[in-house]
């Protein structure tokens, strides 16, 4: 019942949004006739395209998802721009109304009425005509100007976002000092990537590009912090295969993200291990270098709890009973894991999940759920670095949060 109510609410909201867009973009800018009818049909079709997209993304009809997801992003920015324009539009309409009223001639004093046998004389013709409170032509021009501005702005932002999402990830470098890091390990380099999201829209070429970028970094080890796939091993095994070519001095490591639990985590864990990445499921790994030792730990994603597919995140198993004099770096898909990790004295947590918000202003919504949205932050004394992810989920659009691979360089204070 709860699921049915949720679906009904979502459909109702989508219906109201499309009605609002039809009103502002079609009804207010056209007169009765063919173009208004065409606009109404288009609004209905586009409204139905979104639930069709959500239903088809994991089926053989996934190709429908491309136009549907692009329209979802375009719809969102149209809505945002038009809502922002509501106040200046209202002010402009009132100014125009007052100017029209001020330009009207002052009504003359009424003349005496002569009463005769035929009854009272007819009133002056001018007094019998109601003057409009504003100029309809100007109102139509204003509505069309707002519609054109909203359309061009939304299309421009969405087009930029598509180009950004489908382009190569940006390489960012960040230096993070750790108080316990031995001087001999100063400059240890961790290539960090998350949210690759292999699936119907991103395949083997996407993986190959990411692997090539990481290999050029000459990293000490590689950390893949979850949400590698959106599909089964049978569907995406070939797309993930280039991961076997990852190169680093001390190995490549992986922790599960929430999307692995939607995609058959019980198959993906051995598959990723077969490709040469050690999967850290609530365990700890020593990274021994000529300059010292560092503990690298990993926990299952917090979404594993209650799925029955894998053990939930177990911080005690991964972090307990360790040498507290060693620095420890924790791989955890969601930044929120730092709330528990901080209780075990974790020096640095590397995470993804947020996509940096992916589409502004959704970063503000993400900030209500996660302690760090993008970049370096701190939770109860534990440093948390969140990479934006190298892929996308849902609309193939990134605005304000470039796809990213990060080279984390650990430094002594």
From TrEMBL:
One GO molecular function term of this record is: metal ion binding
Q: Which InterPro entries match?
A: Calcineurin-like_PHP, Metallo-depent_PP-like, Metallophosphoesterase_sf
List the SUPFAM superfamilies: Metallo-dependent phosphatases
UniProt record, GO biological process: lipid A biosynthetic process
Which stretches are transmembrane? 6-26, 38-57, 69-91, 141-162
Q: Name one GO cellular component term.
A: membrane
Ordered alphabetically, the record's keywords are: Hydrolase, Membrane, Metal-binding, Transmembrane, Transmembrane helix
Where in the numbering of this chain does the Calcineurin-like phosphoesterase domain appear?
A: 188-356
Which cofactor does the UniProt annotation name? a divalent metal cation
* Record-linked PANTHER family: PHOSPHODIESTERASE YAEI, TRANSMEMBRANE PROTEIN WITH METALLOPHOSPHOESTERASE DOMAIN-RELATED
Family assignment? Answer: Belongs to the metallophosphoesterase superfamily.
Protein name from the UniProt record: Calcineurin-like phosphoesterase domain-containing protein
Q: Which organism is it from?
A: Micromonospora olivasterospora
